[in-house]
């Protein structure tokens, strides 16, 4: 298991909430990011980090 940090970024760039979750791999982290995005409708995107490494974004504001 690896520890990932998920930042819920709002349209104005603020980050009013975050989540730290252990996931098996990057794919499991992507699923968790999608769940958080769906759960927090104020989020424009969810940034996913592993330690100091930014991995990807999920959500409306995320680049494909």
Query: Which percent range fits the helix content?
Result: 10-25%
| Tally of separate helices | 1
Whole-number mean pLDDT: 93
Shape: globular
Distance from first to last alpha carbon: 26 Å
What is the number of strand segments? 4
Rg computed from alpha carbons, rounded to a whole number of angstroms = 11 Å
Low-confidence stretches: none
Beta-strand portion reads: over 45%
Helix/sheet category:
alpha+beta
Strand order of the largest sheet: 2-1-3-4
- The number of distinct structural domains comes to 1
Could you state the order of secondary-structure elements as H and E? EEHEE
Task: Give a brief rundown of this model.
The protein has 64 residues and is an alpha+beta fold. The chain has one helix at residues 26-39; strands at residues 2-10, 17-23, 43-50, 53-58.
Chart the SSEs and their pairings.
Elements: E1 2-10, E2 17-23, H1 26-39, E3 43-50, E4 53-58
Antiparallel strand pairs: 1-2, 1-3, 3-4
Description:
This protein is an alpha+beta fold and 64 residues long. It has one domain. The protein is built from one helix and four strands. It has one helix at 26-39; strands spanning 2-10, 17-23, 43-50, 53-58. It has a four-stranded antiparallel sheet with strand order 2-1-3-4, covered by helices on one side. A hairpin with a 6-residue loop joins strand 1 and strand 2. The chain is globular. The termini are far apart.
